[in-house]
Amino acid sequence: xxxxxxxxxxxxxxxxxxxxxxxxxxxxxxxxxxxxxxxxxxxxxxxxxxxxxxxxxxxxxxxxxxxxxxxxxxxxxxxxxxxxxxxxxxxxxxxxxxxxxxxxxxxxxxxxxxxxxxxxxxxxxxxxxxxxxxxxxxxxxxxxxxxxxxxxxxxxxxxxxxxxxxxxxxxxxxxxxxxxxxxxxxxxxxx
Length: 191
Ligand code: PRP
Prior knowledge:
The protein is of the alpha/beta class.
């Protein structure tokens, strides 16, 4: 693996990264804030089910869940989106459903990023139809400039510009997911 400059005393920053957008510390602090807010909002709920959207949300979900002070379950869903492909724009396909039924339960969808909004729109409509007791979304990153469909985000970590970001669960061709920070990829890597 090629490594470049060091980020503080922590991780090496790969050469493919143009810039660190969000440091490990910045992300950790914001995730703690979101967990505090979510714990307060669900204080009266019997239980909440966090539904992580694979693969990108796995690290955000793990960190968020461990800071919650309310009872919760964890489940996952996997989708395939064709937003960047040649197939019809916005088409989302369910690859793996949740293990447990969400009927009458408080659902919190956990996403790493909202880009066009098609994926979250699909998820919110799907869970509302089942029907869940309530459906909200916790999203680490949002790219407002890329939005094609408006979606409500109840808990948002950060708004970011329209650059390709990797790390903390996010990938480029399945690489860079386990970087501890979020970095912008150099254009020449993906163009
Ligand atoms: C990413 C991300 C969201 C979706 C957002 O998933 O995790 O699920 O795209 O895009 P949208 O707002 O334009 O619908 P991706 O398809 O990259 O899969 P991955 O999480 O497995 O990397």
